[in-house]
Amino acid sequence: MAIRQNGDIAAQRLSSEQLSCEFTDISPLLDPTAAAAAASRCHYCYDAPCVQACPTQIDIPSFIRKIGNGNLKGAATDILSANPLGGMCSRVCPTEILCEGACVRNHQDAKPVAIGALQRHATDWAMAHNAVQFTRAPDSGRHVAVVGAGPAGLACAHRLAVAGHRVTIYDAHDKGGGLNEYGIAAYKTVDDFAQREVDWLLSVGGIELKTGMALGRDVTLDTLRQQHDAVFLAVGLAGVRALQLEGEALNGVMNAVDFIEQVRQASDLGTVPVGRRVIVIGGGNTAVDAAVQSRKLGATNVTMVYRRGVESMSATWAEREFAQMQGVTLITHAKPVRLAGSEGTVTGVEFERTTNDGSTERFTLEADMVLKAIGQTLVSIGLDHALLTLDESRIAVDEHLRTSLDKVWAGGDCAASGGIDLTVQAVQDGKLAAASIDAMFALAAVKAA
After folding, report:
1. pLDDT, tens digit, for every residue of 237-263?
2. Would you list the DSSP string of 363-401?
3. What is the reported pLDDT for 354?
4. Phi and psi dihedrals of 380, rounded to 5?
């Protein structure tokens, strides 16, 4: 959704040179010397806590040892065997609360091993040299439909293809990648990495990607079940929660996910309109990405407002600190009550907060652009309601990610699998679903023999 421009919302606030600098890679690649030094700090722990903290269970001590020995192909093979989207995860994973947060080095010198940077060092080298390729098993004669080309769907498709099954992926967008392509800040994944990773993953063979195909519009679940031996639903959370407040329809108000997509898909960042005074409502990674990118596009004042305290924010402490270092102001314990406007255009947001003495007070922040980032929801179009949880917020699954419908699995953000809503967890869901589907095929083959 493109925002309508008004007098305060404009494109090209910064020069092309300034924009190029603002949107450079925030975590540049380690050089070989730095990588060797970082690898040397690893203790190669037996029963390493970093491995337990990684949803995809990458053998972290093994790949770091290989980096230290100069065996980048072996390191990348370790990573990609456990996580076929290991390159993107090395860029976007909140390592500070996962592998690096669990590193024993935190208890010694308060500085963990740079696991994320080392993972990127190995996977980027492998991508640049086309060094890691997986070989498919003989064709099984089985054909699986995957709905959604995001991390869960891609990981599931890759595992199934390696096992010898044919896969067709259906996705509503024009390109594969899901949130990796459309929903992550541009400064985290530069040089079209998301598409290069998708291309590498599909190169295993046996996978067909059909874009512009939406469930419930272009294809039905019943048809997919009839035409395929199994179906994996990885549709994500495509809906956006509304504030349900006065003034929400004003010009200058838009969903943060739409803003992020606009930035990611822009061939020229100078064409993306941004306000001078931007308010972002929310406290998650989407809110941070939207706020920081607003600043990088040239907004003079960007304020992120969250209704609870920082301890309740889903954005990690590292994300919060990065946003504040980029000039984003954070206000907590304040909830929006009204969006003010003039002549159809937003002029500010009225908030309410509770003071230390228990009373409430209201204050208004001026704004010419308001980005809503208060959570995403499941779009159930094309889904049988029998598939959903009682509150209809997710697809109900068992421990093997099977749904209540025969031959249908689900994973990633759309499924109530009990995991965290992160790219790396979606990848693990895809792997688990693929293993369950493959086991069903193997059992059927035994029974037929």
Report:
1. 999 999 999 999 999 999 999 999 999
2. EEEE-SEEEE-S-EE---TTS-GGGB-TTSSSB---TT-
3. 81
4. -90, 10
Strands 239-240 and 376-377: antiparallel
Query: Residue 183 has which token pair?
Result: 């929903």
Q: Return the sign of the alpha-carbon dihedral for residues 146, 211, 179, 240.
A: negative
- DSSP annotation string for 119-183: HHHHHHHHHHHT---PPPPSP-S-EEEEE--SHHHHHHHHHHHHTT-EEEEEESSSSS-THHHHT
- 1-36 pLDDT, tens digit per residue, is 445 555 578 888 899 999 999 999 988 899 999 999
Q: List all residues 6 or more positions away from 110 whose beta carbon is below 8 Å from its beta carbon.
A: none
Q: Which domains does the chain have, with CATH numbers?
A: 32-129 (1.10.1060.10), 143-237+378-448 (3.50.50.60), 240-375 (3.50.50.60)
Q: Are 89 and 201 in contact (CB under 8 A)?
A: no
190-198 own/partner pairs: CB under 8 Å, 24+ apart: 190/23, 190/24, 190/25, 191/25, 193/87, 193/88, 193/91, 194/88, 196/127, 197/85, 197/87, 197/88, 197/127, 198/149, 198/154
